[in-house]
């Protein structure tokens, strides 16, 4: 039996790193991308995403990349990291019909439905991501593609450590979030 190929964008961050830990124990071919080997803020990264998808022909794509950012941060940086990779994946598969079923899992945030005064850009990027996923299901209709958007609440990663305590109500660990993501396609984890 051929191993399933899984691409993970954001593989070195809080949840992405935990996904990698879980999946390394299983029989998958993992292809890991993070800010060290694929910088979404560089203009040629869009072409790199297409090249990666074309070369690997994955069974599963997990986009766990994200940045919190505040109102003082650069608009492009927040949207380039939080939105652009998912859009480039969708654009690629609009042109290409995968020969096998493809699962795309995108990490969103509950922030999409409630903006915060100091995080307007972050909330806006997550709202855009939410709508991108909804529209993409129609845009890619008829193809062997399933898009799952996972909107977690607070996850105790380096992005929010300075704002909440680990044992605060409604805060989950990156490991627990990773487990929920992986159980979408592997009930045995």
Termini separation (Å)? Answer: 19 Å
| CATH architecture assignment | 3-Layer(aba) Sandwich
Strand order of the largest sheet: 2-1-3-4-5
What number of structural domains do the residues give? 1
Helix content: 25-40%
Biggest sheet record: 5 strands, parallel
Average pLDDT, to the nearest integer? 85
Looking at CATH, the homologous superfamily is NAD(P)-binding Rossmann-like Domain
- Structural class of the helix and strand makeup? alpha/beta
Computed Rg: 16 Å
Summary tags:
17% strand; 189 residues; 6 helices; Rossmann fold; 7 strands; single chain; two-stranded parallel ribbon
Please explain how this structure is put together:
The chain is globular and about 50 Å long. The longest helix is centred in the C-terminal third of the chain and has 20 residues, at 120-139. The chain has helices spanning 14-24, 45-56, 75-82, 84-95, 120-139, 174-182, and strands at residues 4-9, 28-33, 60-63, 102-107, 145-150, 154-155, 171-172. The model has no long low-confidence stretch (mean pLDDT 85). The protein has 189 residues and is of the alpha/beta class. The protein has 6 helices and 7 strands. The strands form 2 sheets. It has a 5-stranded parallel beta sheet with strand order 2-1-3-4-5, sandwiched between helices. It has a two-stranded parallel sheet with strand order 6-7. The chain has one domain: Rossmann fold (3-Layer(aba) Sandwich). Strand 4 (102-107), helix 5 and strand 5 (145-150) form a beta-alpha-beta unit. It starts with a strand and ends in a 7-residue tail after the last helix.
